[in-house]
Write a structure and sequence with these properties.
Layout lengths: L1 H11 L6 H21 L1 H17 L7 H13 L5 H10 L1 H15 L2 H14 L3 H18 L2 H23 L18 H29 L7 H10 L3 H28 L11 H17 L2 H22 L5 H14 L6 H5 L5 H20 L4 H9 L2 H18 L2 H17 L5 H16 L10 H7 L3 H4 L4 H25 L3
Helix pairs in contact: 2-3, 2-4, 3-4, 3-17, 4-17, 5-17, 6-9, 6-15, 6-17, 7-9, 7-13, 7-14, 8-9, 8-10, 8-12, 9-10, 9-13, 9-22, 10-12, 11-20, 11-21, 12-21, 12-24, 14-15, 18-19, 19-20, 19-21, 19-24, 20-21
Amino acid sequence: MPQTLTRSIMDNFLGQAAHWYKMTIIMFLVANPFLLIVLGPFITGWILVAEFIFCLAMALKCYPLQPGGLLALEAVILGMTSPATVYLEAETNFQVILLLIFMVAGIFFLKEMLLYIFTKILIRVRSKTLLSLLFCFVSAVLSAFLDALTVTAVIITVAAGFYGVYHKVTSGKGFDDDHDHADDTGIGHETREDLEGFRAFLRNLLMHGAIGTALGGVTTLVGEPQNLLIGHVAGWQFIEFAIRMAPVTMPVFAVGLFTCFAVEKFRILGYGAPMPEAARHILEEFDRIEDDKRTPKQKVAILLQALVALFLVVALAFHWAEVGLIGLAVIVLATAFTGIIEEHQLGHAFSEALPFTALLVVFFAIVGVIHDQHLFVPVIEYVFTLEQHMQVPVFFLANGVLSAISDNVFVATVYINEVATALAQGDITREHFELLTVAINTGTNIPSVATPNGQAAFLFLLTSAVAPLIRLGYGRMVIMALPYTITMSITGLLATIFLLN
């Protein structure tokens, strides 16, 4: 009986995750209290951060909410952070939480229009290199005036739509049939190679789009959540912020696009995968059938969705309200004028965002450990001991490394407050403060593309429903981001040394 009970508990623990993964999480939970006693809170804090990153890296084995949540609960119980700190971190990032809840759901109600537009683009642009550059460039431009998470939600919706159409047909079903896109049992042997090729093709486009959000997000006041905070502390408005950042962001933008071209042209680290001809034929047929059977009511719905999308762009560009509230307005407008008014119809839109929102709050608990145990303080103190001309590039690198480990919003918050304090105390001049501010913003936005946890948009992509379908895991994202990480980080570093003055 005890053996049966133990087996049942282990079977239930973390569900279908592999046995070795379950035992690893148990080992973490058992070891942490002893590590805290033996090594102290500072080193144990860094170990806890590493354990949480492990959970993110194994996202395809087990969704990180449960194992990461257990680690976060243990950290609170052990006193490494407190519920008050976790709440404060969540409150500080309330804009991001609202954005995830409402904006991602809002994008869901624009999917017919998005799928219509992007299907036309995919069919007509036959050059994979040109298509990749288009995805990267458009994502960058949109992110500069909207925000990276919103743009990422768009490209995820588009990729999921394409995959759903292709997978359904290759499983022997019609375009309108119900289908489980995660079930490959209906795929014939002769089409599996094409399926893997289509997955690789979509992985390429999603990664180019995600990198594009980083390229554009760093350039303006509204591109990333921390940009607004940094601009507020520095006293910079939209135009001045963009001009101050330009010596670093413009060279990085150019190099990012060149990197996109190079990795596609030379098929580096999984890039350069073309769309299989079978997939192109299916999408062309899907587009033709959809055009033929589209009723006047459906055409009007697409037109209204386009108008709502225009409202979204204008509202975000002029910052009429907080991003999450604009997302709520999108939901109201997109559903009220397209007949989607039943509660069960609305519920599906929130299924993508809410698990990630919960994961993000768990992440704030880990950030709380970093804050309460002062894990970054030695780095900050060391940088301020350097000569002033060295501080700007070192700040860029330090912010980049720490952002890749933890979270760029948190790192930016810590660093900008420390620099503002140094300015208030007269330790640095206003001119030097402005240079350090540019280094902080670009450092938290550019090198942080190295890992999915470095940027919220990347983490959102990693934990989205489409990621397991196209086999986009943590390790693959790190590898595919590597060329961009190297070229963009080196360019940003050289710009801080030679172009900032």
